[in-house]
Amino acid sequence: MRKLLLILAICLFLIGPAAKVLHWPNEDKYMIASFAGLILITVMAFVKKKD
């Protein structure tokens, strides 16, 4: 589950700059999703895994 969340967060993080470069419609919404992905990556970096 943790790996799946990490993959989702990375995809969200990368889609924002891709939307800006490719000039997708509503690119600001993609940037908000990118910030959400960045926050999720940061949270996962500081929360320890349960063994």
Automatic annotation (TrEMBL):
The chain crosses the membrane at residues 30-47. Keywords: Membrane, Transmembrane, Transmembrane helix. This is Uncharacterized protein. It comes from Pedobacter rhodius.
